């Protein structure tokens, strides 16, 4: 017997008197596709997609297995291949799907069977009610093919879809192999064929729903307690401790890996967190369950919640954490607004007392500050490049515990900080620590830190404030490519020019001395001005200057000759070098102070 010789009339017997249809003496019934579709939808809606898939695959398996047993016993088949091909023919005759075999390869121990399914009722049904998805949906067909081939071949065979109309493919294409030949990822499909009754599936679904319901009830109670914390204005530390005790996991709220609040169950978890956050030892993620949840409000990044445990988080814990996040967000946003309000008050008042000092006003608001004007103080100013990142840097500094006792302000293009007492006396060391801290958190940004003069009263504090701003701008102008710190004492001479009130003579002098050189650089996009500065900084040493500028001695000599010609100066004389050095200092000083020029049109060479 060949598969192509199978005919409907030979396979199925209809008895009009009894109303029975039989196939190999076994009763059959005609069922509409709409009825099968309704059953399929009800199973999905009752059991969920995954459990319904398993149930329908087992249903198809049993159907295919019985058909295989029947058709094998009804005829003497020419060979095993024809018996294999009889399955697709039978499925087509039953009106389930049009099967087009593609290739079949048989050995004594293995089978590789591929083909196409046309007009799959399952795919059409699924698309109509659930739309296109990411997975294959012809579950009954896959089960039928697996059951039929297993029954007739005598070894476990698993069919699967390589393409499916239900996920947007142009056709449904199937493949079937013995289990031993299956790729590892396809073996996961074996779990769907485990014998489970509909009752057990419903029981499992009920247990899951009941567990979800219990989790919701419990998380509601926890959220109610957290809401009380919020209404009672409890601190964030108490809220995070309560949540950690509830889910028995260590919790950390941090900002750029810097702890804001934490509740560690043990020292080991604390060690794990710092390994992971501070030292970037991400192997900790493989040995422990570390999850992060962003905390944001109104597009403002307030930080993140880090959850650390040994085992994977349960659905209950995830639900509780998601409920708690809303409380954390409200608490942290509230604290953020208060802090912003306090910072703004301090910034505005600081400007006011610098410009219009009144001792009574200061005493009235002195509680806002950590410094006293009669103590030793210094102001440092930080310029951030690119400047659009300044707010983010400011946020980090204000939230960092190391700077909690410092007065920090932001205005114009700068971040200002007042150093007091011992820190003021060791200002360069403090500024270096700040630069290291900022560099580790923002390694793509550049920072220019100016340190103003030491002060012990309000008039000199104002001068320290102005010093720091001008120095920060000055070092940015002269060293734009790298982060740098400069102390007032190092640029005291330049400061006289930065703050001069009558700059006409200074402007005339620098124009007369190096104006032609500046104009040449601007017209030709050259850097002769920097060459001159480097030469003077190295006290006229040709070798050191050439090395620093990465030039040959001959190339440097050519540049110096052009500079002498453009400036009409002799750099071999002390007077020539002094005039150029002074002109350079005035030029950079006036460039920093350009907003205070008498008329911008008077300095067109800038």
From TrEMBL:
InterPro entries, per the entry: CdaR-like_regulators, NO_sig/Golgi_transp_ligand-bd, PucR_C-HTH_dom, PucR_C-HTH_sf, V4R, XylR_N
4-vinyl reductase 4VR domain sequence ranges: 116-178
Pfam family, one: HTH_30
PANTHER family with a match to the protein in the record: CARBOHYDRATE DIACID REGULATOR, DNA-BINDING TRANSCRIPTIONAL ACTIVATOR ADER
Name recorded for this polypeptide: 4-vinyl reductase 4VR domain-containing protein
């Amino acid at each position: 017997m060949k598969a192509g010789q199978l005919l409907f009339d030979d396979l199925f017997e209809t008895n009009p008197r009894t109303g029975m249809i039989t196939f190999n003496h076994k009763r059959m019934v005609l069922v509409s596709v709409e009825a099968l579709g309704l059953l399929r939808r009800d199973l999905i809606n009752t059991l969920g997609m995954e459990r319904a898939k398993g149930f329908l695959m087992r249903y198809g398996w049993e159907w295919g297995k019985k058909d295989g047993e029947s058709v094998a016993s009804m005829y003497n088949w020419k060979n095993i291949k024809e018996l294999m091909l009889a399955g697709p023919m039978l499925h087509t005759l039953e009106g389930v799907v049009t099967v087009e075999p593609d290739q079949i390869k048989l050995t004594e121990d293995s089978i590789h069977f591929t083909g196409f399914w046309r007009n799959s009722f399952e795919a059409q049904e699924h698309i109509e009610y659930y739309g296109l998805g990411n997975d294959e949906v012809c579950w009954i067909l896959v089960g039928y093919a697996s059951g039929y081939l297993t029954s007739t071949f005598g070894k476990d065979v698993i069919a699967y879809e390589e393409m499916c109309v239900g996920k947007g493919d142009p056709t449904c294409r199937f493949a079937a192999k013995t289990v031993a030949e299956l790729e590892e990822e396809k073996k996961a499909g074996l779990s769907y064929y485990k014998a489970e009754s509909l009752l057990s599936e419903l029981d499992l679904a009920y247990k899951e729903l009941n567990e979800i319901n219990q989790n919701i009830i419990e998380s509601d109670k926890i959220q109610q307690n957290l809401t009380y914390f919020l209404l009672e204005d409890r601190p964030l530390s108490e809220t995070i401790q309560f949540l950690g005790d509830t889910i028995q996991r260590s919790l950390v709220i941090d900002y750029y890996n810097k702890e804001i609040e934490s509740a560690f169950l043990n020292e080991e978890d604390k060690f794990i967190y710092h390994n992971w956050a501070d030292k970037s030892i991400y192997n900790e993620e493989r040995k422990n369950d570390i999850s992060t949840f962003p905390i944001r409000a109104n597009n403002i990044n307030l930080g993140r919640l880090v959850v650390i445990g040994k085992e994977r988080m349960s659905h209950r814990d995830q639900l509780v954490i998601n409920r708690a996040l809303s409380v954390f967000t409200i608490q942290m946003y509230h604290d953020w607004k208060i802090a912003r309000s306090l910072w703004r008050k301090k910034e505005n008042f600081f400007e006011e007392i610098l410009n219009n000092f009144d001792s009574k006003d200061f005493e009235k608001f002195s509680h806002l500050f950590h410094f006293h004007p009669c103590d030793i103080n210094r102001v440092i100013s930080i310029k951030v490049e690119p400047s659009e990142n300044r707010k983010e840097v400011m946020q980090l500094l204000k939230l960092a515990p190391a700077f909690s006792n410092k007065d920090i302000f932001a205005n114009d293009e700068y971040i200002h900080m007042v150093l007091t007492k011992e820190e003021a006396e060791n200002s360069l060391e403090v500024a270096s620590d700040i630069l290291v801290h900022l560099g580790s958190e923002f390694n793509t940004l550049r920072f220019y830190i100016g340190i103003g003069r030491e002060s012990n009263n309000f008039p000199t504090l104002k001068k320290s404030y102005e010093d720091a701003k001008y120095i920060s701008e000055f070092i940015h102008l002269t060293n734009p490519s790298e982060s740098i710190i400069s102390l007032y004492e190092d640029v005291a001479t330049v400061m006289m020019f930065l703050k001069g009130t009558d700059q006409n003579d200074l402007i005339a002098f620098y124009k007369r001395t190096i104006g032609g050189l500046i104009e040449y650089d601007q017209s030709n996009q050259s850097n002769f001005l920097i060459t001159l500065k480097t030469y003077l900084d190295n006290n006229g040493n040709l070798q050191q200057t050439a090395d620093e500028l990465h030039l040959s001695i001959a190339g440097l000599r050519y540049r110096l000759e052009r500079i002498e010609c453009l400036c009409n100066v002799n750099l071999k004389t002390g007077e020539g070098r002094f005039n150029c050095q002074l002109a350079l200092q005035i030029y950079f000083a006036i460039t920093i102070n350009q907003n205070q020029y008498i008329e911008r049109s008077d300095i067109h060479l800038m």
